[in-house]
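Why does residue order matter? Because the sequence determines the fold. Keep that principle in mind as you read this record.
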Amino acid sequence: MLEVIFGGGLTGLVGTIWSGYNKRKQLKEEHAHELAFAKLNAANTRAEAEMNLLITETNIGGMRDIEEEKSFALSQKVGNEKLLGGTLFAKLFTQQGVASFFALPVGVLLCFLFGLADLLKGLARPAITIYLLIVSTWISKKAWDVLQSIGEPLTAVQASSLVEQVITVVLYLTTTAVTWWFGDRMNEKNPLAKKGL
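Structure:
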């Protein structure tokens, strides 16, 4: 009878060890499964975030292109608009009595000034371009005159210095003109600048 008790106890102990082993094995497998699922979920979340970022960047690029088109269209519209409508001038030129004594000269002066402003606005870029051509030609001519007046050949260092000075001045003038012409267009194109951000 004692053997049966010890045998039952031993069987119970082996069963407990076996159950514990299986339970640990099952917990490890569940943990490994949960870890693999978490990694897969993180990879999916990362891929989704990257796709959302790509979509957002594409949308922003598209919005920027649309804003550039709108800005260009607006610049064309504003550039071709008349400074004042005809109603003010019509009122100035149709005054009767004493008011016409003052209104007529003011109307003529305003017409002249606005015409002058339109003329200057239209000539700005061509005038700057012609100015740059004249100045760069003048600088090159001065450099040539210096070479002619020396009479003796320049050293490589002197020639290099002269060419560098001419290039520096021409680059300065060109950069100034291009910056002036196109510098403020980017502010018109930037949607954040329009919102004050």
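Residues 144 and 162 are 10 Å apart (CA to CA).
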